[in-house]
Amino acid sequence: MTYDAVRSRFRSPINMRRSRRILGAALIAMAAVAASGILIRAGIGPFVAWPSHISVNSPLALENLFWAPVFGLLVFGSGRIASDRRSASDQGGYPSLLRMSVIALGIGMAFASNLLDPFLSDDYVLISRATVSFADFLASLRQPGGDGAFRPLGTLYFSVVHMFVGYEALMWHLFSLSIHLINSVLVFIIARRLWRDNFSATVAAMLFGLHGTRPEVVAWTAGAFDLLACACVLISVLVSLKGDSICPPTWKCRVTLFFIVSAGVLFKESAYATPVILSGILFPVQSARKLRVILMIASGACISLFLYRWQLFGGPGGYIDSTTGRPQILSVESLQAVKALISRVWVIMLIPNNWDAGTSLLTVIALALLTAGLLAVVVLAGSDSHRLTLTRVGLIGATSCAVLPAIHLALIGASGLGSRVLYVPSIPFALLIGSLFRGTGRHGIAVAILTILGSLGVLEHNLAAWHRVAMKAQDLCFTAAREPNIAQHIVKPPGIEDGVFFFKNGFNECVCLVRDGHLRR
């Protein structure tokens, strides 16, 4: 048989489809084995894999083994023919107020038990320093922050909220939860406008709202910076989707977009990822010419503020590396960055479980539901549609690259601590998972229930850890404030406990607030 004959045989549509099915079956088997390992690790702890006698200690290693075949299925497909046509019942119309209310209510109920939690760690620092003064706000626009951050609008938010609610933890938590609910609804509206599909848009919004990394931005008051920056990113996407074309060529639209992007950056540095988010979401559905206009405006805002930031700090600013004395972002090694972008971001996104907080039977069940739902939707979604493939590639790239502004913080550990940096990148991630449900057919509802229930279970496990640590930290603070003899022996309380910030910062501020009568049980 000649070379040309062999090549034509393997390139025939039938053989290519058969090869894709074989590859898909192998990837599904690999993912299923990795998921089983994750459940065993959650149920009994570290174990020895039989018959290889390999010790399995780190859950992150198993999560990597799960992510690798899932990525392969996303890119190459399982051999199943997919369709990007929406169901007839979801065509046309606008998002209903009832549907958005149900989304907000469902997500809000998941966080209800943590609304009465006390402050924790950095919360005490931020709230004790919150003062309302227009002169101070103007000064904050011209001065770099002492911690390497430049977030004047975020500081203004804390000052304004403090003016109305003082030191009432419940009200601070309600403000944070309200912003998170608004963000979740915005994800629904964006997905609905992109796909004209209520079902997949609802799944995207629910997964965004119930993701296991949310305690750090919702239950922790200090995470409000990320909530507000993300709101601006979402609004910028929505503005870009206005009408039948991206940003009509009017000065009002362009100025509005410029200021929204700028506001996001002034809330927190994570909003520097706005151009990346816009590219990943919009490039599959818009022409290059229209998309170029949006990216020029968004990039112009980010570049202008970055240059201003550089002038204030004499460099990029940010947290300082204690070993080198330089900003941490300048000390990141290339291999660490690649590992974070390709692997770590995704394993935390897919399985956002706080392993340092222990596990229970309910945790194992939640992880089983989550991994089963994720694997099922990836398999059922298929990948034969060129448009669907473009959508996935754009959203995968945006999810990874959106963490670049915080790349020095992206190597998140098994506890998930520090996952607030993934709040903005979770926009394209939620849209990615939601988009997969457009091709699931009649099985989509069952798979969606599995995935959402699994996400809810992992979230509740993580929220329980934040509740326990917050209560314990409050007890220590009140004891130190009311028993001077005990306070003298507390030189430095633990910074982290059960994978949650304990008193990494804020202990002295907490004691002072209790002694001054601002905080009560």
Task: Tell me about this structure.
With 521 residues, the protein is mainly alpha-helical. It has one domain (16-474). Helix content is 64%, strand content 2%. It has helices at residues 3-10, 13-44, 59-76, 97-111, 122-128, 134-142, 152-165, 169-195, 198-209, 215-218, 224-240, 251-267, 274-282, 288-313, 334-350, 361-381, 386-401, 426-436, 444-482, 484-489, 507-515; strands at residues 47-49, 54-56, 496-497, 500-501. The strands form 2 sheets. It has a two-stranded antiparallel sheet with strand order 1-2. Strand 1 (47-49) and strand 2 form a beta hairpin.
Defining traits:
single chain; globular; about 525 residues; two-stranded antiparallel sheet
Any chance you could write out the topology, listing elements then pairs?
Layout: H1 3-10, H2 13-44, E1 47-49, E2 54-56, H3 59-76, H4 97-111, H5 122-128, H6 134-142, H7 152-165, H8 169-195, H9 198-209, H10 215-218, H11 224-240, H12 251-267, H13 274-282, H14 288-313, H15 334-350, H16 361-381, H17 386-401, H18 426-436, H19 444-482, H20 484-489, E3 496-497, E4 500-501, H21 507-515
Antiparallel strand pairs: 1-2, 3-4
* Overall pLDDT level: 87
Number of domains: 1
Mind summarizing the main beta sheet? 2 strands, antiparallel
Distance between the terminal alpha carbons, to the nearest Å? 84 Å
What low-confidence regions span 5 or more consecutive residues with pLDDT below 50?
Answer: 84-93
Instruction: List the helices and strands in order.
Output: HHEEHHHHHHHHHHHHHHHHHHEEH
Strand content: under 5%
SS content category: mainly alpha
Strand order of the largest sheet: 1-2
Number of helical segments?
21
Shape descriptor? globular
**Rg measurement, Å:** 24 Å
Fraction of residues in helix: 55-70%
What's the count of strands? 4
